[in-house]
Amino acid sequence: MDPLSTACVPEAEVIDLESAECRSGATMAKSMGHSSGFHPKQQGHRKISLSPQSKALKVSGTRGSLNKTAARVVSRYRQSRVLNRQKKDNTTFGINCRCQPKCVVNIIKEFDDRKKELIGEVGFDGLLDIKLTKVNRQFGAWLLSKVDPKSCAIVKDVNQELPFGPNDVNAVFGLPCSGQPIIPCSQDELDGKKQILCEIFEIPNFSHLKISLLERILKKQYGYPMTIDEKRVFMAAFVLYVTTKLLAPQSCANFISPRYIMAVSDVDNIKQYNWSQFVVDEVKKAAESMPTCFPNKAQLSINGCIIFLMVKYLRNLQFRKVGITCVKTCHISQFEDDQIARMIQQDVVSKHNPGFPFPRYGKLQLMKEPRENNPHVPELSPLNLCSGSKIPSRAIDGGKNLIKFLESHFSSLDVRGTVGSQAYEELKSYVQDGFDRIDEILPTISDFVDISTMQTAIHASNLFKRAFKTNITAVVKIAIRAAVTKVIDTIEDIQGPLHPWGDTTAMGYHTPTNYSTHATKDASQLDQPTEFGSDGQKKRKYTVENPPSHLLKHKSKRVVKPNRKLMSPFMSKQCSTERLESRIADDLYSYIMSISDDASLEKTWLQSSHPFRISLTLRNIQETIKIGSQMDSDSLNLAIRIMFQQEVERFHNTNYLGWRHFINQDFGMYALAGEEFWEASHQLAHFSGPEVVYDVSESHLILIPVHLFNHYVLYVFNMESKKLSVLDSLNTEDPLGESRFTRHDKIKIMVSQCVMECMRLASPGWNMDILNWDFETVENIPEQQNG
C-alpha cells in the first residue's frame, strides 16, 4: 500500500474492511462522519495503516479530508488483493511501453516560432503536428508480436500482411528517408563522438547527459536572436530527446543510448542521415526481442516506435466510419487519442487471449494499398508469375515450407510454379516440423500423469493425430490458395482485370481454387489436347487419359421407368443410367493397382479445366481407391463435377434442369475455416456463372459435402420444404467426444450462414432464413465404425 498523508483526529477509529459498510468509499466516509466526540478544527496527526492480523484499516483524520482518501484506500486494497491472487496463479502480466509521446507533446506545445524553424532545419518538423499522448500498451504489444522482421511487415494472418519501410516512416512522421545510414560506432569512434556531445552541451563527461538536462535546454527561453551555439545545442537536444522518448526508445530511465550519437554529434548535417530507416531497424529489433510465449512472467517491456506501428496499421484498416482524410501533411497529424481508442475497440476480436498478456485483435480487414504507396511489391505479370519467379510474400520470407506428402493432396495446385522452388522447399520442412511436434503431446501430458498404460488415452491421442493431419492439410491448402488470390488481386490492381466475365476459358471464377490454376498456367495451356478422348468426351469437359479401353466395353444399361406419384425427375422422366458390372469394376481395380513404375504413376489420367482445373494422376487414383484409405479432396471434387455435368446433360431443355445442385467440398472447407478465410464473393462461382446454366434459387435440393475430422458428411438443403438434413455415416464419437447428433449443432449454423450469404449475392431477391428451418439427422443410412 502506498503511504498516505497524515490526518487530524483525536483518536484513531478502526474500520473493518470485510464489513458491509466498507463496500464503497462513500459508505465508509459516511460512517466516519457520524463519529462521536469530533470537531473538524481539532489538531493531532496520525497515519493510516493496515492491520494484517485483523484485516482492518486504522483511519485518522478529519471528516472532510477523508471522503476521497478512504475510498481510494479501500479501492487500492481490494485491487492489491486481486493482483496478488492473480500473480500467484501466474496469470497477470504487466506491459511496460517505453514509447512516450506525451513527453514529446508537452515539450513541443511550448515552442515558439524560432524553435519550430530550427526543428524544420533538421528535418523533424513533421513531429510538430503530433497530437497523440497515449499508447494502448496491450494493442502495441499485439502489433509488435505480429511484426515479421525478415519480411519487414505486420503479418496479420496467412492472408493479410502489411509491409512497411522507410517511406512509410516518412509518411507518418515526415522524417528524412534517404542519406547516410545510422549505425553504431566502434569503441574508438564512440569515445570521440561522446566528447563532441560533451563540448556541445558544455558538460564534463557523457554521464551528465540525461533527459532532465535535455528538457531544461528545450524549455529554456532564449534571447533574440539566438546565437549559433544556442541553435546547435537546441537542435541536438531535440533530436536526442525525441529519439529517446518516441522514435527509438529502449529504456524508461533518463539514459541516452549511444546507438545514434554518431548522427546527433554531426549537428550541422543531421538532416543528411536516414532517420526513417533507423526507426524501421529499431522496430525490427524490438520485434525480434518480443517473446513468443509468456510463462511465469509478471512484466513485459516493449521497445521501438509503437506509435508508428499503430498509425500505419490503423490507417490501412477498413472502417465503416473513419475520420481519416487524405491530406498532404504527415499521417500522425490526423490521429487523436479518442479516435485511436475507438478504432482499436472496433478491431478487438476477443478480450480473452489465453497465454498472452493482451486481447486478440485483428477483426477488421486490411485495405488494398495502391501500388505507388507500396514500394515493396515489384512489377508482376502473368509471364513472370508462371516462370516460377519469387513472389514478395510472407510465403517466401516468413513461413515457407510444404512437405512431400502434400504433393499428393495438391494435385490441382502447382505449388512449385506458384511460389517458386526456394519457397516450395522451405514450405515443405515447416509443415513436417508441425507434424513432428504432435508426437510431443504424450510426453508433455505424462509430466502430470502416467498414461503409458492407459489404452483409452493412447487411442484418443492417435485419433487426434489423424484428425490433426487431415485438418492441417486443409488449412495449408487454404493458406496457399489465399496467397495466390492475393497475388492475382495485386496483378489486377496493377494491370486491370485479366479477363472478361463470362469467358469460360479465362480466370473469371472468384474462388481460391481456380485462382491457383490460372496463376500457374496460361489459359491456352489449359485447353484439352486434341488427342484426348472423343468429341463427346470433349463436350463433357472432363476426359479420361490413357484409359484401359478394353475394360470399359459392354456396359449394361438400366432404364428407370417414370413414377407419376413422386415429384422427382428421377421418377417422373424416363432416363437411362449406366452401371458398371461388378466383374468389370473388379478387373479395372486390379489393373489400376497393378501398375507400379514411377513414370506411369505420375501420368495424368483424369483432368478437368472448368470452372477451375483439377488433375488426377494414376498415383492419386490408387491412393483414393485403395482399401482403408480416405478419399482425396480433389478426387471427390472431380466426382461431384462429373455428377453436376451429367445432370445438366440429362435434363437439358427440361423443367428438371437444376433440380439438384451440387457444390464441391471446398465450399464447406472455407465455411468451417471462417473469419479471414471466408469471403462470400470468392465462393460465388458455386452458385452463378457460365457453368451454372440455371437459377440455383429455383433448385429443389442443394447438396454440400463437409469434411469433419476423418469422414465426410452430406448437408442437404431442401429449398421446397425448408428443411436441412444431415447424412452422417460416423456413428461413433469423434476425437472431440461429439456424437453424430451433437457434432452438427454449431457446424450447421456456420454452413447455413455461408449458404445464405452466397444465395443473396447470386440472387438478390432471395431472402430465406435457413437458420429457422427444420433440422434432422438422418438415421437410416449405412454406418461406419472405423472412426
From TrEMBL:
Composition skew (Polar residues), residue ranges: 512-528
Segments for region (Disordered): 30-62, 512-542
Keywords from the UniProt entry: Hydrolase, Protease
GO molecular function, one term: cysteine-type peptidase activity
Span of domain Ubiquitin-like protease family profile: 614-787
Superkingdom of origin organism: Eukaryota
Coiled-coil segments: none
GO biological process, alphabetically ordered: proteolysis
PANTHER family: OS02G0622900 PROTEIN, OS07G0283600 PROTEIN-RELATED
Family assignment from sequence similarity: Belongs to the peptidase C48 family.
Protein name: Os05g0448000 protein
Native species: Oryza sativa subsp. japonica (Rice)
